[in-house]
Amino acid sequence: MAQLLSETDIQQRLDDLSGWTLAGNEIQCQRTFKDFIEAIAFVNRLVEPAEAAGHHPDIAVSYNKVTISLTSHDAGGLTASDFDMAKVISGLA
Question: CA-to-CA distance for 30 and 19, rounded, in angstroms?
Fold first, then answer.
């Protein structure tokens, strides 16, 4: 099982991620798109990197808004893999 990050580590890693916030035991970001079709296209682009990493975000879609939440459920909080996945997601157009 992955090791949980300390509050200091979490804050330092968040400082390096634009657009991500801490929400309890998760980090989250929200993206807004032109319409529902573009929002779903973005979600579809998440599939391959998430599968490759074996780390799957929680995703909520509300018309043109996509909210992505990351946490390591098996570890009970935030680990390095959450921030690694956040960086990948941040790099998706």
Answer: 8
Write the CATH number for 55: 3.30.1360.20
> Do the domain assignments include residue 1?
no
Tens-digit pLDDT profile for residues 36-67: 999 999 999 999 999 999 999 999 999 999 99
Instruction: Provide the domain limits for residue 12.
Output: 7-90
53-to-45, 48, 76, 81, 92 alpha-carbon distances in Å? 14, 9, 18, 9, 15
CA distance 2 to 29: 22
Tell me the DSSP string of 8-73: HHHHHHHHTSTT-EEETTEEEEEEE-SSHHHHHHHHHHHHHHHHHHT---EEEEETTEEEEEE-BT
Spatial CB neighbours of 15, under 8 Å, sequence gap ≥ 6: none
- Residue 2 covered by a domain: no
| pTM, full prediction | 0.93
